[in-house]
What we know:
Blueprint: E1 27-31, E2 34-38, E3 56-59, E4 66-72, E5 81-90, E6 96-103, E7 106-116, E8 121-129, E9 137-145, E10 151-160, E11 166-175, E12 178-187, E13 193-201, E14 204-213, E15 218-223, E16 227-228, E17 233-240, E18 251-255, E19 260-261, H1 272-282
Antiparallel strand pairs: 1-2, 2-3, 4-5, 5-8, 6-7, 6-9, 9-10, 11-12, 12-15, 13-14, 13-17, 16-19, 17-18
Amino acid sequence: MFDGTHWTGGIQLTNKTNSNGDISYSTGYCLDGIVYSAYNYKVSSTENLMPPMVLCYAERELGARVEIEAYLDGLLVNGAPSNIRLLVTNTGDCEVSRFTAIVCGQTAQLVCGKPLQIGESKLFDVPFAAAFSGEEYLPVTLTVHAEDGSVLASAEYLLFIAYTDLSVQAAVAIENGKQQFTATVANASQIASGYTLNVYVNGELRQERKGSLTGGAEESFTFSFEEIAKDDYVCFIVVADGEDYILTDNKSGMYSLQTERVTHLGAFNPYIEVLQNAKQAVV
């Protein structure tokens, strides 16, 4: 880079090469406010290159610039203390040392013990309390400050929030004359989660099961009912302990295939008297 007085160290612009060392055509384009131009010029020595004759040059206003990348340190749980690892790279033309990071509306002051030189990167740990409500991305903002507190530059990074993603699929079948309902709960994400599986018949809660699934796992349950009529609607709903990414697949239901009654010992059975009378008539 030529600052009008001297040349800085070389900056690689491309990994493409030409066997004869020539740029085969001239071109120019603008990217992020910077004008790049290429010239048909054979490279032999860099000692006497002048700005109008170089292979590629950029004209821009010198100043502070940064790039950031954010990484979650552990599982992000809504409302719980969390930590983000923030990688800051100085892509500007001057050293920087003071930053302000904003995560979930919470501000953290970051100070380098040693100024971050041009091209250098540094990793910061930024604690915060997670606060989100169904968002897919968590914005992380970094601002660079001068010694007097004025803003020199800023950058933003959108961090993907990993939610758990539970689903349930139900089925019904007749086995040995008995109706059996099966519900399979699956975790399509990589985030482990506890859950409650609620079973409703015509909107009335009949049974529930609790469990926990690691990422990519599934678990099946079998249900039967002491009393159910044909065409009664049986619905299974799984509820995650934490935030669930997609809720449209958390419910599955079907209609009962037959009427079933279970008579307990000692309970009134209206058919007992009829059977007894029939037995006496035969005798």
